[in-house]
Amino acid sequence: MKIVEASPLLPADESLAEWRLATPLLDYQNHPIQQLIAQRGWMKLGEHERIGAVYDFVRDEIAFGYNESDDLPASRVLADGIGQCNTKGTLLMALLRAVGVACRFHGFTISKRLQKGAITGLAYWLAPSSIIHSWVEVWATDRWVRLEGFILDRAYLSALQQRFIDHRGPFCGYGAATPDLRRPAVEWRGTDTFIQRDGINHDFGLFDSPDAFYAAHGANLSGLKRWLYQRVVRHWMNRNVADIRAQLRPVGAQSLHKRPRP
């Protein structure tokens, strides 16, 4: 499907300033977030390295998993220590804005087929056929860069690569939808990163913040399904994801930073 592209025009200074503001969900003035930034020394880095350090933290130190809801504040996602596309995206946006980097929200839906394997049984049945999805767009080196590759932590992604070591071509499932599972574009190099893009089936467009998106479109579940998800189902889902991650063999752990050979 066609995705709304960023304008090539330079944003006005007031727009960039707005994309650095805190919001109720992007609550980067929260003490643990400020403490994290100080401890990591991110403000001492140049912009490219600063974005990369924040990106790597959210990708690998906030494990792929399922929170109570999509519309949680960044401070709660940090406390949970886990997240998926929407919640990890909220934390990434909050941290980027906290270190002075302008960013915005791009909302979508994805086919639930993308989640099959990571979500099984009753959990898969409860999931809507199209699931709210998002990525973060960051203003870097005078252009918008689209960031989605932070969703799956390195250990989980490596476990998938081991499990499907003989797979070639497009891959869809277990939280990934990518043209090449062996070489997904997930590393920060100043260019777009993706891991679920090929599962997108609807584009809601651009929003200044996750707050604005959820106010317009809501979260994924409501009513009884939401209650079951929060109280029971997500815990099954997180155990399943943890089991997949735990299957990572030591030989894979030693080669996490190496690209698979063609």
Order of helices and strands: HHHEHEHEHEEHEEEHHH
Q: Structural class from helices and strands?
A: alpha+beta
β-strand percent reads 15-25%
Report the strand count: 8
Roughly what is the average pLDDT, rounded to an integer? 90
User: Which CATH architecture?
Assistant: Roll
Question: Main β-sheet, in a few words?
Answer: 4 strands, antiparallel
Report what the structure shows.
The protein has a single domain (13-254), classed as Roll (C8orf32 fold). Helix content is 40%, strand content 16%. It has 10 helices and 8 strands. The chain has helices spanning 13-18, 31-40, 47-61, 74-80, 85-98, 121-126, 154-163, 210-217, 223-246, 250-254; strands at residues 63-64, 82-83, 103-111, 130-140, 143-147, 171-173, 176-178, 200-207. The strands form 3 sheets. Strands 5-4-3-8 form a 4-stranded antiparallel beta sheet. Strand 1, helix 4 (74-80) and strand 2 form a beta-alpha-beta unit. Helix 3 runs antiparallel to helix 5 (85-98). The protein is globular and about 50 Å long.
Describe what is shown at a glance:
By secondary structure, the protein is α+β, with helices and mostly antiparallel strands. It is built from 10 helices and 8 strands.
Key features of this structure:
alpha+beta, 4-stranded antiparallel sheet, 40% helix, 16% strand, C8orf32 fold
